[in-house]
Please model this.
Amino acid sequence: MIHKYKLSGYNVLLDVNSNGVHIVDDLTYDLLDNVAPPFEEKCPEGVLNKLSKLYDRTEVEECYAEIVELYKDQILFSEDDYEKYANTSVASPIKSMCLHVSHDCNLRCKYCFASTGDFGGGRMLMDLETGKKAIDFLLKMSAERKYLELDFFGGEPLMNYGVVKEIVAYAREEEKKVDKHIRFTMTTNGMLLTEEKMEFINDEMSNVVLSIDGRKEVNDRMRPRVDGSGSYDRIVENFKKFVPMRGDKDYYVRGTYTKYNLDFSEDVMHLYELGFDQISVEPVTADPKMPYAITDGDLPKIFKEYEILADKISKIRSEGKFINFFHFMLDLDAGPCAIKRLKGCGSGNEYVAVSPDGYIYPCHQFVGIDKFKMGNVNDGTFNYDMKNEFAHAHIYTKPDCIKCWAKFFCSGGCNANNYLYTGDIHTSYKLACEIQKKRLECAILLKALEKMDTAE
Amino acid sequence: MKHIKTINKADLKATAAKGGCGKCQASCQSACKTSCTVANQKCEKEA
Model:
């Protein structure tokens, strides 16, 4: 399977199964509309006659030979022989957890998939005992995995800061006993950050995700405080103080774009101009009936906006400056292995979420949906059948993914989005797929251009 | 090549045989939380 596209004056050719990326001339681009395996020794006469109306005949013959050579090298039209690996994920240990320490929030973000913090289940904070049991569950279920991940999530996790500190202290003691290490992270809106909390987070958290949508008017429209006033001024002040204190530890400022700011490249640039250079901005997850929801009619504008964003990022980098946009990150030579790419995000299999009352769900986006309760850390219950079902939700059990060129990049997409929009974790949510594919096209070209000088 | 410039090693197939150690980060734990991209994660297999 191949995928080819034109972007910013370049012809990009992806060989899906080898992950080979090629920049090709117009002749190759057009010739590939007319040839495919099995290849003949020489370019077929009919194709030659057709293409020679536009291109020199000898050039067409040369180009055909190059295509055949790459085919023989298995970096063009290479076979998909990964399905045999797909089932290896069934018995994966659980090594990542999203810990919902607070189903309460001090903001009232209008698009919040957690129903402004409580996930539809009433405002609630996790108690220390439940937090400890969640740590015990993770240490036990992670089997032989040494490096584990735990994200403090909410609602707003800093509304339960005392318990966060005690959970971390408990985990540090317990992990030693079994020779493991938990990498803590936190997703916070920043409203309650103080110097003392910043220092604690910097000591203990390998990454922090700092929520902000971009320009003041964009942020404050969707991210008001409980009293309706804006959050921008407070969080910008806090984040500008906090990020330099992170030193070489990771952080991301992370925003959501909606129908109200389809010019979101302006928000990415605004965040960059505020001094943040690790940025993630993503489309809203929302009921299509909501006025801010993204709909099919928005796609042309969104596609164009990603192109504009790619150009802006490219320009910044050409000036020798650093900026990282999460969804344009790709390592074309040493990214994740093929096995990881088959398995996707690992929700329900390697990754679970735990609610304040101890219920286990496949991921944070399933929290609050009763039928996806996998068990409870407080009573030791756990539904292995559901874990097994999620383990089998890989690209070869998702009909739309099998034939999609982007399958080894998005790895089957978001199971929660699939369920929320289509009612089935195996049925792709097409709108998200279209946005994902456009982001990937931009990301692949950005990376290709960086590597062009050293390419053969 | 004159018409085609190959940009990368294109060795995804080779990674299948020695991959699957499971040490890499869950993608939603980094900066995502709503929209899955796996290919931007780092391989963390120890050499």
